[in-house]
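Duplicate of #3305? Posting structure anyway:
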């Protein structure tokens, strides 16, 4: 939790409503996202009980498993889910563009789930289905392993900061608003929306309190309410199991089960679309399209890999793959945080408080300053002095950048701390063309209000790792290609 979000939470408690901690939307929202609300059997993490899924708020599809402990019914559920998900994936691969000498689809799948536990369910369901055999003993429908591979692909993309391929709604909302309740309570989608978008005449705390009633707002899954499990679900499943196949009693039990599960899912389904509407009210940040292009490019590559007969993802990463993935995850997180700060003053405020950025007024400008450069030629290096009251805990020679001048870098050459202000002297480079005298507007002017930060995309170096074929023996030597085994196909569904 940052200082800004802590302050916003304190203000939310006093005001009785959520406070913004971002001025722009930092996630992509597809025109036709695939909303997925899953429920799991209590005590079995990825045993599906039911799900509501669809791309239109008024046309959800209900899938259910009348006896979650029955293997055939589980994979029947997976096959029905696969029909919907694979059709959606196919719809995203109809139009292409040429980008950087490769074909990139103009769209990509976006799967939206209620909370972080929903993301975990998607990951487990993908792992439990992508290795299944379509022939031999206990075969599954051919679309089931393909479903598992796509769910795994979306789950892996969701680990990268800034990706919008698989989003938990509670996380997306929590990135933009701070409430007056705990982080654990923010995991309740109904309570979180109660603070952010309460009904007219109702305070955030009152709306959140009402959201805790499971009879009005059932849990957003995948876990169900224990009272519902004991009083309604268990008897309905038992009635279906005890009834003879195709008997009127079984049909009645199935109808009862369907009504009960629909009643558990529909409130969350409505909350999901309400949350989408709330997020759409925020203007998208400039880099959202760029990050979505990365999602589209990754989708296009994996789609081609699957089309070419590529193998399913390995059960676990080897040492080399894990090291590269960790490096990429850390770098993407740094880039995402820095980019958000450059585009959003409320996010930048977190850096200002810690001293990694400062905001102030330009009080001196030496725009025509020239210094010796390479090959004995002088280069233009203007000096500016910024007066700030921010901490500015930055060392001499630190490079900084202003959000409003992305092509220009400043190097701190002096910091003069005075009783009522701090004067930071910067040497500027870049963004001024090759002219001896910088054109108007390329150098900050006197009295200009400006922000500088040491966290910007170009400031992060990419850690270089040895090529895979030169992996040292300490990490197992050069990795061997992954080949699925019978053990993969026999992995239990849990």
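Output from current build:
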């Amino acid at each position: 939790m940052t200082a800004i979000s802590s302050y916003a939470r304190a203000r939310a408690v006093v005001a009785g409503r959520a406070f913004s901690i971002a001025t722009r939307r930092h996630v992509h929202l597809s025109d036709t996202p695939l909303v997925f609300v899953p429920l799991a059997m209590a005590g079995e993490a990825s045993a599906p009980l039911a799900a509501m899924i669809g791309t239109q708020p008024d046309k959800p599809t209900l899938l259910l498993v009348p006896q979650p402990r029955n293997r055939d019914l589980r994979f029947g559920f997976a096959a029905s889910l696969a029909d919907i998900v694979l059709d959606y994936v196919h719809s995203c691969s109809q139009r292409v563009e040429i980008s950087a000498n490769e074909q990139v689809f103009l769209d990509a799948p976006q799967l939206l789930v209620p909370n972080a536990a929903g993301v975990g369910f998607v990951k487990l369901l993908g792992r439990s289905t992508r290795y299944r055999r379509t022939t031999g003993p206990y075969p599954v429908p051919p679309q089931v392993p393909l479903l598992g591979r796509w769910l795994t692909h979306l789950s892996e993309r969701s680990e990268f900061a800034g990706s919008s391929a698989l989003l938990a709604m509670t996380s997306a909302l929590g990135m933009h608003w701070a409430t007056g309740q705990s982080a654990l309570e923010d995991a309740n989608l109904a309570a979180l929306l109660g603070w952010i978008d309460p009904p007219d005449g109702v305070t955030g705390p009152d709306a959140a309190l009402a959201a805790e009633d499971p009879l009005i707002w059932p849990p957003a899954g995948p876990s169900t309410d224990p009272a519902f499990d004991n009083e309604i679900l268990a008897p309905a499943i038992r009635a279906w199991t005890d009834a003879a196949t195709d008997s009127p009693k079984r049909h009645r039990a199935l109808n009862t089960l369907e009504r009960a599960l629909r009643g558990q899912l529909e409130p969350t389904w409505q909350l999901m679309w309400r949350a989408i509407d709330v997020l759409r009210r925020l203007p998208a940040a400039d880099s959202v399209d760029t990050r979505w292009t990365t999602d589209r490019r990754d989708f296009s590559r994996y789609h081609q890999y699957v089309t070419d007969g590529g193998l399913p993802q390995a059960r676990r990463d080897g040492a080399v793959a894990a090291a590269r993935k960790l490096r990429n995850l850390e770098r993407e997180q740094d880039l995402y945080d820095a980019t958000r700060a450059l585009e959003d003053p409320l996010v930048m405020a977190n850096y200002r408080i810690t001293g990694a950025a400062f905001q102030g007024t330009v009080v001196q400008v030496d725009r025509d300053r020239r210094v010796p450069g390479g090959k004995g030629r002088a280069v233009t290096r203007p000096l500016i002095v910024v007066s700030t009251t921010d901490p500015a805990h930055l060392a001499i020679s630190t490079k900084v950048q202003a959000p409003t001048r992305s092509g220009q870098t400043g190097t701190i050459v002096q910091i003069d701390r005075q009783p009522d202000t701090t004067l930071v002297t910067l040497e500027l480079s870049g963004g001024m063309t090759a002219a001896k005298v910088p054109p108007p507007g390329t150098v900050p002017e006197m009295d200009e209000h400006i922000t500088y930060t040491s966290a910007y995309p170009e400031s992060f170096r990419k850690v270089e790792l040895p090529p895979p074929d030169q992996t040292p023996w300490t990490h197992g030597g050069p990795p061997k290609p992954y080949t699925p085994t019978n053990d993969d196909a026999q992995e239990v569904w849990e």
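Confirmed duplicate; merging threads. The first strand starts at residue 19 and ends at 20. Residues 248-280 form the longest helix (33 residues).
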